[in-house]
């Protein structure tokens, strides 16, 4: 290899580093039965116990005893890998049962399981324009990278509307030719800003302008609604959205993604989407664990209540301390630092000196100048853990001379 090649790679990394957003992955080992605790491997020679405050295993289902049992039992019964793509020997009975369960969860005819939520978005949105020639996609500006990538792959005309802005969306819908097929793509819970889309109103606009709706409920499935069907279930809107997309990797504690929709839609996506067709299906044990997790959360409103209580307790404490956090209606609590270098330095200090792990969230995950620490309290974050966190943050706030908001 000519050394010039390497220079380009080095330059790319230097650019990232120069902006203070060079990413360091913390090496941790989760401890079964002790969620949200983990062991942090600082380096080869040093390890210590920490409390994780930024996991997307929102309800600790990744360590739920029944889920673990379901995974183990499927491994004992069916082995490890699935052994094929969905078309060629990779559709096991576990996949079939899981898809049935997910369809039922969302009140749809059918569901399709993908390798990840990312792939579900990219593959489904990516194939839409082949199914609907001339399609125009209307996409919320804060949509996840996987939706953006799918829309780009689709190579259709796209209009990006201002975040959760109905007037702006309507202006764009109105300006588009009435006879062209349209699709509005958005999320329910936006995980970095901790806010929720006006789903009903977006569906009203979709009806008015004859558009389809596609909603990413990744940060809501398992956690919102009486059975964990997401914000659409909570608000009685499941039949108003055409395609629901979710993940098995966050509240359900496994890995994999899915869509649920009318069976003609899932049949078309199943038959045409490259990212569904040309890849090995998830292991049977993963499907079995996800199935168990969905079933448990369907009948466990008390876990959701505890989750909400813990999130509001953390927000109450941040409010009393005058910390500048986004006070939304969700379980996510973003604490604004608004500087990439400080954000990283604070995160480092928290883990080094206080045994608290919260990853700095920098560009491009969020816009520059809005760097933050994103806290995800779970039902298992105790009052004592919150005491430790608040004490640590107070100390750091003074040390970094950060602003406190006036407490009412
Ligand atoms: C995490 C995430 C995804 C991707 O889901 P994975 O299952 O982790 O691949 C999709 N959409 C949103 C909004 C996400 O935050």
Describe the structure.
With 408 residues, this protein is of the alpha/beta class. Helices cover 43% and strands 17% of the residues. The protein has 14 helices and 16 strands. The chain has helices at residues 3-18, 65-78, 93-105, 117-131, 145-154, 166-175, 199-208, 231-234, 263-272, 274-277, 284-298, 301-321, 340-354, 383-399; strands spanning 28-30, 37-43, 46-52, 110-114, 136-140, 157-161, 182-187, 189-190, 195-196, 211-216, 243-247, 257-261, 333-336, 356-357, 360-361, 372-375. The strands form 4 sheets. It has a 7-stranded mixed beta sheet with strand order 4-12-11-10-7-5-6, with helices on both faces. It has a 4-stranded mixed beta sheet with strand order 1-2-3-14, covered by helices on one side. β8 and β9 form a beta hairpin. α2 runs antiparallel to α11 (284-298), α3 (93-105) runs parallel beside α11 (284-298) and α13 crosses α14. The longest helix is centred in the C-terminal third of the chain and has 21 residues, at 301-321. The protein starts with a helix and ends in a 9-residue tail after the last helix. The mean pLDDT is 97. The protein binds pyridoxal-5'-phosphate. Pyridoxal-5'-phosphate is lined by residues 116-118, 121, 144, 146, 187, 191, 216, 218-219, 247, 249, 257.
